[in-house]
Amino acid sequence: MSRADGGQSSGGATPLGLYVHVPFCASTCDFCAFYQTSPTADGVRGFLQSIEKEMTLVPRARRVDTVFWGGGTPGLLSPRDLGRLGELVQNYCGGTSPAEWSVEMAPASVTEARLRALKDVGVTRISMGAQSFQPALLDALGRQHTLEQIHRAYERIRAVGFASVNIDLMFALPGQDEAAWLADLEEGLALAPDHISTYCLTFEEDTKLWVKLSEGKVKLDPQHEAKLYELTWERLAAAGYAQYEVSNFARPGHVCQHNLNTWSMFEWVGFGPSAASQFAGWRGANPSDLQRWQDEVAVGTRMSDDRVELTPALLAEDALIFGLRMNAGVDPVALARRFPAGAWSAARGVLGRLIDSELAERSADGRVRLTTRGRLVADAVGGEIMDAMSA
């Protein structure tokens, strides 16, 4: 049984993840909408103290299966501070390291000392945001690293010996034609990472790129984007990277289990400013402000933003939407057993229409998967399911 249909962790309970948002960043990339702030000595010290306090507010209910540090740029922390944060996580996990522990890093912040500190606390997976190997495109994104830094950082990560290494690449960038994207893909493949994430550029509100879009300085081109999607899927498959989600590809044994568990609507606890949680019957996020988060934690409050009760109907809807984004697809019968309160009559109607229009297909074992055409419009499919199941 797949995790999307109700799988369990190796300990017998449903999986539990832990996410830590490290908000510090040296600069803001033009496309980035994640909460971030400039690092200061006092800011980092207060962050670590508040993480320790916040962890006392959420007693660990069972074994933690996966950990993920995102940002911001977690790699901006000093080796000593990375070690301290790692110790806090280990303590929360009961003194043992989880089976998978991922950390995002930017090429410019990768040093041997930082990597050693991460390896020493139990980190198993590094995800490096390369985005592009072409200086002009990196500049268009506002990225603060060079081609040389990407290669040097990757060599250092491999030398330290992490179990899995991922690189992030972006396509449909301003000024990026088909040949430029294929060149980036080839250079990424030449590094031979264990996992590759490829993201189509999106224009999030309150970003510099959103402003450029609203001013007409950059334009959307859905047909161009669809072509790049298909080229990506074909090239990575030929290179031995199996697609397991719309934007994610891995060699055998290197899928990101933390993300799989999240997409499968299992539980995770988020610590740090803006960190989201789905735990103990509630979904919500910490405030996207370092000082406000610290103030709330100091008085025993967390997850105060966008707080909603996790009803079985909501979980059923989200499990179907995110499950269809994964290449394994979903077993509607198993999902209905797991979330019996879902609007399954409406869901079956949508699935039937998707199959009739060849956006999805049903296998002999009853699983429903999006076809290549369906994955190209996965966001629209999700919207249709949401409308039907929440009506």
Give a nutshell description of this structure.
42% of the residues lie in helices and 18% in strands. The chain is built from 15 helices and 14 strands. The strands form 3 sheets. The protein has a 9-stranded mixed β-sheet with strand order 7-8-6-5-4-3-2-1-9, sandwiched between helices. Strands 10-11-12 form a 3-stranded antiparallel β-sheet, with no helix packed on it. The protein has a two-stranded antiparallel ribbon with strand order 13-14.
Characterization of this structure:
- The chain is α/β, with parallel strands linked by helices and 391 residues long.
- It has 2 domains: 261 residues, TIM Barrel; 78 residues, Arc Repressor Mutant, subunit A, CATH 1.10.10.10.
- Helix content is 42%, strand content 18%.
- The protein contains 15 helices and 14 strands.
- The strands form 3 sheets. Strands 7-8-6-5-4-3-2-1-9 form a 9-stranded mixed sheet, sandwiched between helices. It has a 3-stranded antiparallel sheet with strand order 10-11-12, with no helix packed on it. A two-stranded antiparallel sheet has the order 13-14.
- α1 runs parallel beside α10.
- The chain starts with 15 loop residues before the first strand and ends with a helix.
- InterPro entries: Aldolase_TIM (IPR013785), Coproporphyrinogen-III_oxidase (IPR034505), Elp3/MiaA/NifB-like_rSAM (IPR006638), HemN_C (IPR010723), HemW-like (IPR004559), rSAM (IPR007197), rSAM_sf (IPR058240).
- It comes from Actomonas aquatica.
- Probably acts as a heme chaperone, transferring heme to an unknown acceptor. Binds one molecule of heme per monomer, possibly covalently. Binds 1 [4Fe-4S] cluster. The cluster is coordinated with 3 cysteines and an exchangeable S-adenosyl-L-methionine.
